[in-house]
Specification:
The complex is a heterodimer of chains A (123) and B (579).
Chain A: H1 8-23, H2 28-40, E1 45-48, E2 52-56, E3 66-69, E4 77-82, E5 87-91
Antiparallel strand pairs in A: 1-2, 1-4, 2-3, 4-5
Helix pairs in contact in A: 1-2
Chain B: E1 4-11, H1 38-51, E2 54-61, H2 71-87, H3 89-94, E3 103-106, H4 115-121, E4 124-128, H5 133-139, H6 149-158, E5 166-172, H7 174-177, H8 180-193, E6 202-205, H9 220-234, H10 240-243, E7 266-270, E8 274-276, E9 288-291, H11 297-312, H12 319-323, H13 327-330, H14 335-340, H15 349-358, H16 368-378, H17 398-404, H18 409-412, E10 417-421, E11 424-427, E12 429-430, E13 437-442, E14 448-453, E15 468-481, E16 486-498, H19 499-504, E17 511-515, H20 517-522, E18 533-539, H21 540-552, H22 554-559, E19 566-572, H23 575-578
Helix pairs in contact in B: 1-2, 9-15
Classes of the chains: A alpha+beta (123), B alpha/beta (579).
Chain lengths: 123, 579
């Protein structure tokens, strides 16, 4: 991206855009476009689907959304929703004919039973 | 080779020899005087498409009125299309499509002019008539205000000995519907007295658009009455095949109107190189995809998909459609008509439902997975609302187990913990129950407080004084260890904040408030920058109860094998760390 973030607000916006590249195939120009869109429209909503990112300014009067045709490259998700306040990931839903639901959790983490923390001495 | 197959309507001329009173093209039915010859643009487009691995599996000529072309231009076009089908037979068939004959959509008024070409190439004809025929002569007149029906019927007679497909279609507006008995008689007349294949006839249901105020649409109830009347009249006759098939096929699942995104498959090319969605979208900027002479094929295809996606999303998704078991067939209908009516469902919804039922299409009573698939592909609505619930049949789901054991409630509920970062509130949910993941971004400037409902300190606890707010910090970095060799997020720290501290700190009537900024900052060098880190909240007592439940209930254990507590994922952004 062209922009070198200076404030923390810009740094967060920058990082959100960079994080989009984990999930979508985006060029530098497209990332700049998304960054500038979020900077221009404080209430903007970016919706990521299977093969597109839609940039909705979320202003009144309404303006035509912009669509970036791109490929979702992360098979573990079904989409994203990005605003200036949030970054939401929709994990991939595995249809019932397949082996099961991938769930909303990140991939790991259970201490699966407890005594490895040495901090439960007051139980 | 990986080809993309498209359906291409080609408009070699905008000129028309008729002046139908309700024509949607209004004043556009004159040749646009472009510098390109009719064949030149089609040849150019086909080559450019093919160079980009885009193969029209069907090329149909549309108007304007194609028969206004000179004999030579018409002949050259038809010959080109015929040769195209022959030369590309294998590619088209490999894509699962049948090879047809050159096909024209025509008003049939000047058909005799091109009868030799039609014979030579066995051109398939799709004509337009108004039914009842008495209205044809009223509405479908020449530019010199002359009636056209007799000449058209004479021209149809010329097709008698040609083994081509010859069909007609008629659009039904209120003005036609009022003469339903006449329509029936005229269908019988055409079937008996002409060479038209009336089993291949089709109705279109008119919608209000550019008809100069002359025609008015029929209601959905009238659409069904019309459909039922046709069945009553023709079921079991030698037009049984038609009335149960092609006559109403336009409202079936095979047509463009029922695609996910018709912009991926259907294109209309004009002689000047302009490309639109289709006849409905012709000359409308919202359905203009570019110009074959000016834009790359990639640009045109992307614009097509994009515009149709946007057009489908101009109105919010109709919740009735998400509950309709036929969404998998209908996909809410044609975006052009929906937007024309400022509606979000198909204008023939009721008719389609009756027709699907009559044609033995199964209603998907458990359509949540299809709805989610549709939303995922084609909608801008929040997807999490449509994510189907997990289904298991052989043992209780986690949600059922939580309902059965009230003691589990606070390990999983969405109301007990609120994380407040600067001015944002995040109501935390269990990471294994919630259907989406929120990622937050924390900086050294962030003010971070966890708000915990006061009752939590008493839940599942005999001695609340000995209970604590239990906070677990995990890195996004993974580690594999232990007897089971599982890969997990690496633990960074666990903090317990006892009741005494919470009692003495900030609080309101309902919540304890604890500032975790320093705790988060303390571990800043431990966080992953590339993968989201994780912070969980519960109480020591609830955490103990979770593990006790795991020991006692295998079904609970296997479904709550990952940490179940309320959580949020985060990145820690520090300008210095970034450097």
């Amino acid at each position: 991206m062209n922009k070198e973030p200076e404030t923390y607000e810009e740094l967060i916006r920058y990082k959100r855009c960079v994080d989009l590249t984990i999930h979508y195939d985006l060029s530098k120009e497209e990332l700049d476009k998304i960054y500038n869109y979020l900077a221009t429209y404080p209430k903007a909503i970016i919706i990521g689907n299977d093969n597109s990112l839609t940039l909705n300014a979320n202003v009144e009067p309404k303006i035509q959304p912009e669509v970036i045709m791109t490929k979702c490259i992360d098979g573990s998700i079904d989409g994203v929703k990005v605003t200036n306040d949030s970054f939401k990931i929709i994990p991939h839903y595995v249809p019932s004919s397949s082996s099961g639901y991938s769930g909303g959790s990140s991939s790991n983490n259970n201490n699966n039973n407890n005594n490895n923390n040495n901090n439960n001495n007051n139980r | 080779m990986n080809y993309k197959y498209i359906h291409l309507l080609y408009v070699p001329t905008m000129a028309c020899n008729m002046c139908c009173k309700y024509c949607y093209l209004e004043d556009n039915t004159v040749d646009d005087g472009t510098k390109y010859k009719p064949l030149e643009t089609l040849e150019y487009a086909i080559k450019k498409f093919k160079d980009n691995n885009v193969i029209p599996f069907n090329i149909s000529l549309h108007g304007g009125e194609v028969t206004t072309l000179s004999k030579n231009d018409f002949y050259d076009l038809i010959k080109f299309i015929s040769n195209y089908y022959n030369d590309n037979k294998k590619i088209i068939c490999d894509g699962g499509f049948k090879i047809g004959n050159p096909h024209i959509k025509t008003n049939m008024y000047n058909l005799e002019k091109h009868i030799d070409t039609i014979k030579e190439f066995n051109v398939s004809i799709s004509g337009s008539l108004d039914l009842p025929l008495s209205l044809h002569d009223e509405y479908r007149i020449t530019k010199g205000n002359q009636k056209t029906l007799k000449k058209i019927l004479d021209n149809i007679a010329l097709l008698k000995d040609i083994p081509n497909k010859k069909k007609v279609s008629a659009t039904i507006f209120k003005e036609h519907y009022n003469y339903i008995d006449e329509i029936i008689e005229d269908i019988k007349f055409l079937h008996k007295n002409t060479c038209l294949d009336m089993n291949d006839f089709n109705f279109m249901i008119g919608f209000d658009y550019n008809s100069n105020g002359i025609l008015h649409h029929i209601t959905e109830k009238e659409q069904i009455e019309f459909y039922n009347r046709m069945h009553k009249e023709f079921d079991g006759t030698d037009l049984d095949y038609g009335v149960n098939g092609p006559w109403f096929d336009e409202f079936g699942p095979e047509y463009c109107t029922n695609c996910y995104n018709c912009g991926e498959k259907f294109f209309l090319l004009e002689k000047n190189g302009d490309i639109y969605s289709c006849v409905r979208g012709q000359k409308n900027p919202n359905y203009y995809y570019g110009n074959i002479y000016k834009n790359s094929v990639e640009e045109i295809l992307n614009t097509a998909k994009t515009k149709i996606f946007i057009n489908h999303n101009k109105q919010p998704l109709n919740e009735e459609c998400t509950k309709c078991g036929y969404l998998y067939l209908c996909k809410t209908g044609c975006p052009f008509v929906k937007n024309n009516y400022n509606s979000n469902k198909s204008y023939t919804c009721q008719l389609q439902q009756v027709m699907y039922k009559d044609r033995n299409f199964l209603k998907d009573e458990f359509n949540d997975e299809f709805v989610y698939e549709y939303v995922k592909k084609m909608r801008l609505e929040d997807k999490d609302k449509y994510i189907p619930s997990r289904k298991q049949t052989d043992y209780s789901t986690l949600e059922e187990l939580i309902k059965q054991d009230k003691n589990l409630k606070y390990i999983y509920d969405n109301d007990s913990f609120i994380l407040k970062i600067d001015n944002q509130e995040y109501h935390l949910g269990s990471q294994i129950i919630k259907k989406s993941r929120d990622i937050i971004y924390i900086t050294p400037n962030s003010k971070i407080e966890i708000w915990m409902k006061k009752n939590m300190i008493n839940e599942m606890c005999d001695y609340p004084e000995n209970n604590s707010l239990y906070i677990m910090l995990l890195s996004g970095d993974l580690v594999t260890y232990g007897d089971e060799n599982r890969t997990k997020q690496r633990h960074i720290a666990t903090h317990q904040i006892y009741k005494g501290v919470l009692d003495n700190g900030k609080q309101d009537d309902e919540y304890y408030v604890y500032n975790i900024k320093n705790m988060i900052d303390n571990y800043k060098s431990e966080y992953s920058f590339d993968k989201p880190n994780n912070i969980f909240f519960t109480t020591s007592a609830l955490r103990d109860y979770h593990y006790t439940k795991q020991k006692n209930n295998a079904y609970y254990h296997i479904q709550a094998i990952n940490l179940p507590f309320q959580n949020i994922e985060f990145y820690y952004l520090d300008k210095e760390l970034k450097k």
